[in-house]
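Renewal narrative, Specific Aim 1. Our central claim is that a sequence can be written position by position from structural information alone. The example that follows is taken directly from our test logs and has not been curated for this report. It begins with the structure tokens describing the chain, in the order in which they were read.
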């Protein structure tokens, strides 16, 4: 058993000063079969500690229904076996470029801006979740022989709100649940952020990508004593669909890391290994200085231009960081572990079966609702997936523009079963079909959320059609809505879908890939526009021809020798004819 404490100038392990050399690695973005390898890569780079968030919405998709809620404990056990320490950031809000910042849609839907405050209707579910989650952290704390040395209070709250009573409540709940290791907060090195996000008696840390001396000077104005720590050293960045791939020069990042360490500070490299937003869990951001502008959805890859890339390989940045970190550790660094198995040879396979979106909806869809105005995704209980909104245009009447107000985020329109255009509200929330629509028409709008906002004042905004459908200036009432949730796609359920010969249209495509030597790979869907891919029932995430991401990472443990079933849910374009597995 050991003790870990916050001293006047340093962290203290059993009373001795220590510096934390940590790296961010999110267990939920890495296939469990790769945890050991990725931890070994971090050790070999010179890190002795691992930081992870915990996504509430992944583990409690519906109130009281838990999915793999003990994964954090298994990951912390792997950290302990690797001989490393752990920093846990349990939320309830995590940002992390993750859907809704980790908050469940069933909570943000009814509460909206009341989340992340002392509102009792928010606090009660948070407490219930923490009492379910935290025992696996408490029993793995350093004073109980485990790896956990620090636990975070909320996350970057100073970038969002000023309800100090809420932060104090979260800190009190953590203590009441048995957390005995030091607590901390993390915020940008700005006066208003540190003022809004700090808690008296709790260590404040700073997040930045450069300018360590200036950042720590700001932190010291708010916290005159205690160890300095950059809790998020942004060594790279994430990508948005339709934008250029983000890259940071390795030498520049290594110089910024060296500056942090020269200040005598501890560091958490964000990200040391980013991983992948499997399952369509990528979040979204709003453009603009105040983060309230056009929507920018995050891509499936969370490579982050990190030292260890999405496939677990060392990059130029890895070796540059290793050289810097080697000066701050005792003894020689271990060599990087052997890489996981890679795909033996390229493989392609035909997508020779197809089912229409309507046919898939009949089997996998939720119950149809009929309401005067369109229900939001939250009202339909949808976190990730599609909703078909169906509305009739009465007549007789001459053609008028048909538009959608409050569209979030993208709709593929059909008029009397014929494709009528794509409505994209990324630059606003109102969109109009390219051609007018006459009376006595049936309009289908297939709407997809491209990821809920994970940061800024637009957190907790609803998805789907949040306003209404208009013909000229007139709202059309009597809307039939039916959800197609990503979670509905399973091996047994998809087997019930009525497949037929492929048709060049949106729908669910199915095929088989014959693999001789299974291992990590990249998957491409030539000719596809936008949708999702599953391999052997495992959802790799969203693809989109908008780029910059051109292929999806396939963890080797998902593949098997022989036949591998692939599903491609194309929601917008003419449809692919094949899938390709590439060697990494």
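The sequence written for that structure reads:
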């Amino acid at each position: 058993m050991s003790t870990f404490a916050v001293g006047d100038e340093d962290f203290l392990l059993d009373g001795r000063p220590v510096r934390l050399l940590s790296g961010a690695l999110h267990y939920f973005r890495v296939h469990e079969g790769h945890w050991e390898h990725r931890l070994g890569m971090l050790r070999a780079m010179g890190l002795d500690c691992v930081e992870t968030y915990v996504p509430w919405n992944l583990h409690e998709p519906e109130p009281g229904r838990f999915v793999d809620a003990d994964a954090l404990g298994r990951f912390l056990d792997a950290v302990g076996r690797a001989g490393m320490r752990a920093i846990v950031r349990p939320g309830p809000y995590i940002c992390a470029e993750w859907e809704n910042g980790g908050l469940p849609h069933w909570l943000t839907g009814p509460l909206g801006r009341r989340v992340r405050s002392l509102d009792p209707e928010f606090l009660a579910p948070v407490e219930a979740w923490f009492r379910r989650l935290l025992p696996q952290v408490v029993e793995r704390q350093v004073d109980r022989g485990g790896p956990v040395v620090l636990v975070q209070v909320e996350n970057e709250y100073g970038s969002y709100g000023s309800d100090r009573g809420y932060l104090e409540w979260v800190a009190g709940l953590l203590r009441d649940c048995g957390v005995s290791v030091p607590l901390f907060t993390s915020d940008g090195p700005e006066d208003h952020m540190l003022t809004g996000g700090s808690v008296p008696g709790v260590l404040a840390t700073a997040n930045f990508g450069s300018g360590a001396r200036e950042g720590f000077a700001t932190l010291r104005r708010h916290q005159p004593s205690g160890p300095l720590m950059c809790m998020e050293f942004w060594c790279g960045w994430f990508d948005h669909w339709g934008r250029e791939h983000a890259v940071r020069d390795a030498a520049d990042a290594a110089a910024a890391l060296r500056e942090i360490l020269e200040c005598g500070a501890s560091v958490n490299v964000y990200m040391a290994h980013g991983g992948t937003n499997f399952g369509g869990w990528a979040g979204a951001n709003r453009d603009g200085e105040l983060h309230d502008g056009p929507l920018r959805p995050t891509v499936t890859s969370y490579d982050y231009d990190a030292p260890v890339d999405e496939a677990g390989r060392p990059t130029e940045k890895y070796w540059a960081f290793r050289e810097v970190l080697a000066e701050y550790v005792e003894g020689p660094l271990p060599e990087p572990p052997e890489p996981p198995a890679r795909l033996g040879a390229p493989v392609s396979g035909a997508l020779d079966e197809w089912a229409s979106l309507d046919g898939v909806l009949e089997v996998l869809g939720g119950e149809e609702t009929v309401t005067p105005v369109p229900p939001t995704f939250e009202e339909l209980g949808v976190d990730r997936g599609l909703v078909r909104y169906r509305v009739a245009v009465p007549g007789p009447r001459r053609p008028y523009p048909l538009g959608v107000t409050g569209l979030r985020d993208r709709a593929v329109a059909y008029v009397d079963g014929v494709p009528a255009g794509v409505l994209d509200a990324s630059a606003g929330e109102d969109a109009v079909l390219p051609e007018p629509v006459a009376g006595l028409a049936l309009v289908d709008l297939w709407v997809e959320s491209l990821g809920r906002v994970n940061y800024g004042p637009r957190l907790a905004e609803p998805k789907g059609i949040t306003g209404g459908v208009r013909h000229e200036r007139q709202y059309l009432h009597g809307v039939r809505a039916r959800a197609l949730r990503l979670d509905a796609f399973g091996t047994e359920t998809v087997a019930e879908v009525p497949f037929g010969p492929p048709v060049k249209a949106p729908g669910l495509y199915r095929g088989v890939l014959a693999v001789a030597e299974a291992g990590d790979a990249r998957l491409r869907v030539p000719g596809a526009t936008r949708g999702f891919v599953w391999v052997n029932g495992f959802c790799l995430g969203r693809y989109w021809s908008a780029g910059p991401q051109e292929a999806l990472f396939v963890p080797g443990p998902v593949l098997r020798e022989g036949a591998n079933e692939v599903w491609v849910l194309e929601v917008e374009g003419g449809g692919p004819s094949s899938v390709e597995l590439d060697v990494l």
